[in-house]
Amino acid sequence: MVNDDLDEPPSAAAPSGRSGAVGRARAQRLLVTLLGDYWHAGRSPLPSGGLVAVLGEFDIAPANARATLARLTQRGMLTRTKEGRRTSYRLTEPAWQILQRGARRIFATSDESTWDGIWTLIAFTLPLDDANQRRLLRARLRWLTFWPLYDATWVTPHDRFDEVREQLSELGINDAVVLRSRDLDLLPNGLARLEAAWRIDELVAGYQTFLDRYRELARRAVAGQVPSAEALIQRTELVNDWRALVGADPDLPARFLP
């Protein structure tokens, strides 16, 4: 099973850290972003030395870069091959599928005006001692724009019926109900619970931070003032930050926005 919960954000507005567990997570997200952005269609293995060198451009030390490769391999995102003394890595097939889905979500545009008033709801039961599966399911549900109404009852205003069933199948979860209905009567406390989970104010702050951070870069890029080496770093950081924002965004219809 692929452990792909790299995008479960602590806060949409939180700055990127570079030390400890946050630093390790950042290195993994950066490498996944690089592979998804530039190598998602590639099937050839990439030499470990090259990947370590690229991560070095982001101030990630060689030892930390090699640890990142090992962690992503352990998660099932990468597979390791060796020919003589040459070690290489490539995306696993499940990881490739995950990156394809991620690209569609990251770069998609939504039209809130077309909401049909129908919700997708999932209710599930998981063994209490299976924390890893619970974490994976929650991360994937958030990526599909589900948010918790209750601990094991999640909803989204989008049609995710087929996608969530696919995720349940991938994770081997059989004790669940998925339905589509416009007859979802959100009483005041239920709606308040959802609004608290959506964290709209934090999300607005996160988007504003993103705009403030990259506004000058956009101006320089339009003027042709970004050297190629810097462009790789800045574009990857931008996509990485954007991916974290998208992962925290429930993509709400206009009626739920402030």
From TrEMBL:
Taxonomic superkingdom: Bacteria
Domain Transcriptional repressor PaaX-like C-terminal residue range list: 198-258
Annotated Transcriptional repressor PaaX-like central Cas2-like domain residues: 113-179
Segments forming domain Transcriptional repressor PaaX-like N-terminal: 26-93
Disordered, as annotated region: 1-20
Biased composition annotated in UniProt, kind: Low complexity: 9-20
Protein's GO biological process: DNA-templated transcription
Any Pfam family hit: PaaX
InterPro entries reported for this sequence: PaaX-like_central (IPR048846), PaaX-like_N (IPR012906), PaaX_C (IPR013225), PaaX_trns_reg (IPR011965), WH-like_DNA-bd_sf (IPR036388), WH_DNA-bd_sf (IPR036390)
PANTHER family: PHENYLACETIC ACID REGULATOR-RELATED TRANSCRIPTIONAL REPRESSOR, TRANSCRIPTIONAL REPRESSOR PAAX
Protein name stated in the entry: PaaX family transcriptional regulator
Species this chain originates from: Micromonospora endophytica
